[in-house]
Amino acid sequence: MKLEKPSWIRVKAPVSKEYHETRELMRRQKLxxxxxxxxxxxxxxxxxKKHATxxxxxxxxxxxxxxxxxxxxxxxxxxxxxxxxxxxxxxELGLHHIVVTSVDRDDLPDGGANHFAETxxxxxxxxxxxxxxxxxxxxxxxxxxxxxVVKARPDVYNHNLETVPRLYADVRPGARYxxxxxxxxxxxxxxxxIFTKSGIMVGLGEEKGEVYQVMDDxxxxxxxFMTIGQYLQPTPQHYSLNRxxxxxxxxxxxxxxxxxxxxxISASPLxxxxxxxxxxxxxxxxxxxxQIKQAIA
Length: 297
What we know:
Layout: H1 17-28, E1 32-33, H2 34-37, H3 43-48, E2 53-56, H4 82-93, E3 97-102, H5 113-126, E4 131-135, H6 145-151, E5 156-158, H7 168-171, H8 177-190, E6 195-202, H9 208-220, E7 225-230, H10 247-259, E8 264-267, H11 277-296
Parallel strand pairs: 2-3, 3-4, 4-5, 5-6, 6-7, 7-8
Antiparallel strand pairs: 1-2
């Protein structure tokens, strides 16, 4: 039985001039965006503001996560010119903050880590004032991959847990919950100055207590910022939507996360990993400075 979308989850169709300008730039530079590939509900708002999440390493994923709308199959050939095109596009858009993500590339020896590093370097070259957030795959069984990305020094390192451990086998079968936690902790061990971030979806059948446990696990891994958003089933073939979580429940998650010590928490029906990422980065820096001052006092 298909659940009817409640009023708080509905968004307007994108029609603005700025939206079409951003779309045209992405087509001209032959760039993929997770905004389109994952059918993000916030694409109209973000592209109107000329915010976008660039997806590198092609548009075909080597995994088949049951929540995800990105195509699965034989991956694209690696494009050595993609990092430069990304850097030039960000400069043309005049972005203050950019999120760079990718499909999973289990076929590559480094999982695409060097391509991430080259993209960060190209952004620094063409748009030196732009802050950079990466949202990487888990690099499962790719020794040294995390170190390569961290060495390139993004401002924010994001890796999503996506759901609670109990649901991994059904929702995210190619991944391992505790490996993802270890990745996030490793980033902090390698470079404590990099902000770390992770997120989950709700409405897949998880219990509140399980969400609270994920919060505890993330704090134990020294993660700074958590996002919680509503799962939206892309097609009838994807993992079934269990329910729509109310705004009041999201507010409860927000208060609980604050109490557990996260520097930042974004929890709402339309929250996505990259939604308002630039504004959130500025608030993250402010929160860290306040934390430092409090420790000195």
